[in-house]
């Protein structure tokens, strides 16, 4: 499995990386712009991401904008829903509007509230059929 971890917080990135590196080849991005660039490279190299852990609140291009752009790139490349990257939104927010927008406007697959728990993350990626 190939995973992209997108978070502006060093601690959160490292925690998710420590969990996922046991089951995935991981790349890291610190903001939405880096995430989109990494996603584009993966598509161009014919090695798309299976999983993206995406923080919603980041400086510059935030997670909501990155999510919409990633889904747009998938459509441009003819990638249909069953083959789309599984995008797990990771957020400290209990804000229902942000979560609603990520799912219904952005196309997120699921979400986890920070701090990320190893068991919950592993259970989530198992439920998505990734391990």
Describe the structure concisely:
Residues 2-129 form the Response regulatory domain. By secondary structure, this protein is of the alpha/beta class.
Summarize the structure in words:
InterPro entries: CheY-like_superfamily, Sig_transdc_resp-reg_receiver, ST_Response_Regulator. The protein is α/β, with parallel strands linked by helices. The protein has helices at residues 10-20, 32-44, 63-76, 96-105, 118-127, and strands at residues 2-6, 25-29, 51-55, 86-91, 110-113. A 5-stranded parallel beta sheet has the order 2-1-3-4-5, with helices on both faces. Strand 1, helix 1 (10-20) and strand 2 form a beta-alpha-beta unit. Helix 2 runs parallel beside helix 3 (63-76). It is globular and about 35 Å long.
Helices and strands, in order, run as EHEHEHEHEH
Unreliably modeled segments: none
* Cα gyration radius (Å): 13 Å
Query: Strand arrangement, largest sheet?
Result: 2-1-3-4-5
Number of helices: 5
Percent range of helical residues: 40-55%
Strand content: 15-25%
Main sheet specs: 5 strands, parallel
Shape descriptor:
globular
Secondary structure tally: strands: 5
Kindly report the average pLDDT value. Answer: 90
Note the gap between the termini.
Answer: 8 Å
Judged by helices, strands and strand pairing, the structural class is: alpha/beta
